[in-house]
Design brief:
- The two termini are 59 Å apart.
- It is built from 4 helices and 4 strands, in the order ααβαβαββ.
- With 141 residues, it is mainly α.
- Strands 1-2 form a two-stranded antiparallel ribbon.
């Protein structure tokens, strides 16, 4: 059973999937940092010095200065600012994947049309545009 498991894990597609998950997680962290540390502060500044990560609705009735303070007090909150950051993260990652797939599709060459075909009578290989087989002289129309 251990041998079967080792063979399963060492298959090419399983290893490729593991590598893709690891790279995807690292890419997600980069995008999260980009959104939270680079993109959202200027947007918040342009909208009147708003910190999106601290936008929340307190459901407990008490007043807290930040999401961290509310969580530390155990208050129930709706953290719509953090949700907004996650939506932007998702959109950036989805757009980056879209651009990557678009480039991969552009680099792939379309399959070349076949240049030859087989004669239905003698099964010899003949040019695709041939109307008569040069081997058995049968009509190919």
């Amino acid at each position: 059973m251990l041998k079967e498991f080792r063979e399963f894990v060492m298959r090419g597609n399983v290893v490729d999937l593991a590598i893709a998950v690891i790279i995807g997680a690292a890419f997600g962290k980069i995008i999260t940092s980009f959104v939270e540390d680079v993109l959202m502060p200027p947007i918040g500044l342009a909208l009147g010095k708003v910190d999106f990560s601290n936008l929340f609705v307190n459901l407990s009735g008490k007043d807290y200065p930040s999401v961290a303070a509310a969580k530390a007090a155990g208050a129930a909150t709706l953290n719509y600012g953090i949700f907004f950051n996650h939506i932007i993260n998702f959109l950036i990652i989805a757009f980056a994947i879209f651009l990557l797939i678009k480039q991969i599709n552009r680099m792939q060459k379309p399959a070349a049309a076949p240049a030859t075909k087989d004669c239905p009578q003698c099964l010899s290989t003949i040019p695709i545009k041939a109307t008569r087989c040069p081997h058995c002289t049968s009509n190919l129309t």
